[in-house]
Structures are given as structure tokens and as C-alpha cells.
Amino acid sequence: VSDASGEFGVSEDAERLHGLRPPLSAILAAATALRAHVEMTEDERDKFLNVIIRSAERLAGMLGDDDEPD
Amino acid sequence: MRSSQGSRLYADPIRATPKDMNGARILVVEDQEDIQLAARLCLEIAGYEIGVASTANEALSILDASLPDLLLLDITLPMVSGWKLLERLRADTRFAAMRIIVLSGLAGERSEKRALSLGADGYLVKPFEFEALVATVSRTLVGGAQP
Fold first, then answer.
1. Whose CA is closest to A28, among B139, B39, B102?
2. What pLDDT is attached to residue A64?
3. Nearest of B46, B8, B36, B140 to residue A25 by alpha carbon
């Protein structure tokens, strides 16, 4: 397995963890933007919240694909 | 009024008072929709004018039409990687003044060195916080090198 950097040897688990990164990144960026108390409109605040919710739902879906029991 | 989706070529109006560089335009090249949207929203509320592309080829089409001040470039793009796009842009004198920040999930020093050696002006690791994104962009736009 290789990533776009051309680096080989990435394990299946590492690749799976790598797949969690995009929604996690989006959640962190959006949540910290809300925390930063930057001036924004209600519409903009809603957009950030939607990013957080949608990304969290995506993460939940990814984790739900796991065959392991709770 | 800012559209929710917007044109991919800076159709959104510039916020009245950008905090550092007046009228700075940024093209976000990121294939992951969640990150692309989050980065766009973060940079918009920081006062920048944002365009977005999901592939290297889409970015090149936009760059042919309009030159941004800064490119926020994901490395793991489909088909043509961010590395290849970075090399191509830095080999083209038309884009010499455009600053480029590489956005990567690779936190290793080797990857950052590779980006800088290929001509990137900055390097930001995913996941990133709002403050880190805005600080890196601001620092890079005003000409400062990465610390």
C-alpha cells in the first residue's frame, strides 16, 4: 500500500486510520473557529455547526463499519 | 450575499476588512469535501476571498483564468498528486509570485522538508485548528518564512 507521497509500507490499519483524518480535520477546524469568537453571522455559525455534525456523522458511519462488537 | 456553494472561482464577495493583506485571494485545492468546506469557511471569516478546486487539473484550469495570492494545496489529491502540482507550478514563472502552503496529513519532518525543497512557502499538518490555519496563511501572505 502506498500513499500519494509514494511512501510504501502503510498497513491496513494505518490506512483505515488515515481515512478518519478528513472528518476529524473538518471537525477540529470548524469547532476551533467557533471557539475563537471571530465575528460571524448566524448563517456562518450554522455552516460551521453543519460541518461539525456532518463530519461527526461520517465518522460514526466509518466506525460503525467495524465488525468488532462494542 | 454570499452563496452557500458559490462559484469555484472567487465568486463570493470579499469581506470588507481583511485582517492582513487587502484583497488576498486564496485557492483551496483539497479533494476531501469536509476539509475543503471547513477550510473555506475558516478563511472566509478571517477575511479572505476563497476559490476551491478538488483536483490538480481543476486547480490548473482556475489558475489559467485567475491568479490567487496563495494556494492551499493538499498533497493527497486523486490522479495528479499535490507533489506533482507543486513541482509543475514552481517550474512555471507565471506562478512565481504565488505563495503555496502544503496541506498534508504527514507530520514527519521529511515530508515538510520535501515540500519546502519543492518550493512551498509553508506547511500545515492535518488535522489543524482554526488559529493555526489562519496564522500560517497570514504569515505566509506577508512574506514570512515558516519558523
1. B39
2. 81
3. B36
Contact B57, B29 (CB under 8 A): no
Q: Could you say which of B34, B77, B106 has the minimum Cβ distance to residue A26?
A: B34
Answer yes or no: do A44 and B81 touch at CB < 8 A.
no
Neighbours of B54 (CB within 10 A): 18
Q: What is the DSSP string of A11-66?
A: -HHHHHHHHHHHHHHHHHHHHHHHHTT----HHHHHHHHHHHHHHHHHHHHHHHT-
**Spans of chain A below 50 pLDDT:** 1-3, 5-6
Indicate the pTM of the whole model: 0.81
DSSP letter for A10, please: -
Asked whether the ipTM of the predicted complex exceeds the cut of 0.90, the reply is no
